[in-house]
Amino acid sequence: MADVLQPKNVPTIVHCFFPFNRVPNSEGIFNPLLSVQITQLADGVFHWLHDESFFLAHLWRAFTSCNNFEPEEEITIRLIVGARPRFQPPLPKEYFGNAIFLVTLTATAADLVKKGIGWVALQINKKVTNQNNEEVKKWYENWIEKPEVVKKEGKLERNGIGVSSSPRFNMYGNDFGWGKPVAIRSGIGHKYKPMFTFFAGADDGDMDIEACLFPETLIAMGNDEEFMEFVACE
Q1: Which of 115, 116, 154, 174 is the most exposed place for a label (fewest CB within 10 A)?
Q2: What is the CA radius of gyration of the chain?
Q3: d(Cα 197, Cα 32) in Å, to the nearest integer?
Q4: H-run or E-run covering 100
Q5: Measured over all CA atoms, what is the biggest interatomic distance in the chain, rounded to whole angstroms?
Q6: Which of 3, 51, 175, 203 is catalytic?
Q7: DSSP H or E segment with residue 30
Q8: Do the beta carbons of residue 210 and residue 72 sit within 8 Å?
Q9: pLDDT digit string, tens, across residues 86-105
């Protein structure tokens, strides 16, 4: 397992661990919703991070800095936000299905790099905090008027990043009788460029993250000492 988890770049063999790769959600109408595949490996490592909103700011800022954008170029971060607790009344816990919507923030490259990590984190925090019942309903009403089916191809640009999943999901708590997971990885169908995917870490307070970036960006961020101070690899 060390050969799978230790490299900074996830080996392509990882895609073989996911039987439903490239299967659209819509095919769940006539295909199975759950598939289990057991691949026996040994040993393991994981990447972990701390402070969700603070680290989002680090990702956005480091991504901008490492791509050498023009100062006035606008850089976007797109967050998938959960609607369940924001509806009034909230959706029941038993609700089976996605209840999410997209939140977009934009700032110039100069502001992201020069105004500091605190300013960037504050912008993210204010945007997410303001997503209340009224904002959620407005988003869904607009979608009903102008529905848009999300397509993987061409959804993200080089001057923006997407963030998906959440460290609130206790992925390591899933035990199907084979023992506690030692690492979390997602399949190719869940990856866009540029995209960051968050999961709860193996230990309380930790976060795991997967990065799907263009090679030159990934290399530059890996060599960014300021950014790498906030990323721990074991």
Answers
A1: 154
A2: 19
A3: 25
A4: strand 100-108
A5: 53
A6: 175
A7: none
A8: no
A9: 888 888 888 887 888 888 99
